[in-house]
Design goal:
It is built from 3 helices and 4 strands. It is an alpha+beta fold.
Length: 106
């Protein structure tokens, strides 16, 4: 798996608008690539967000991003997202090496 992690700050009163942008962007992404995204909101600082997106592999991600770059609506959504930010977006790229899941915990 290829993983992208983003760190950023969104004002608490803009959360609903932020989620609508992300949901629409997800619809556009799903036309081109299989992915899973998790949005985490800090428990102490409600403006702090962590976004974790997982893709099959890095090649699939890069190819899909080239296709998505041609989507005009996605550029508009990104502009709207950037207008909500109160910080810069910090970005990381990682390769998932192992996943451990326990569904039988008592």
């Amino acid at each position: 798996m290829f993983v992208k992690i983003y760190h950023y700050h969104i004002p608490k009163d803009k959360t609903e608008e932020f989620m609508k942008i992300q949901e629409r962007a997800g619809e556009l992404y799903s036309r081109f690539v299989e992915f899973e995204t998790l949005f985490l909101n800090d428990t102490k600082d409600e403006t702090k967000w962590l976004e974790i997106s997982r893709y099959k592999d890095e090649d699939v991600y890069r190819y899909s991003m080239e296709l998505l770059d041609e989507e005009t609506e996605l550029h508009t959504l990104f502009k709207d997202f950037k207008a909500l930010l109160t910080s810069e977006v910090k970005e990381e790229e990682l390769h998932e090496m192992k996943k451990i899941t326990n569904v039988n915990a008592e």
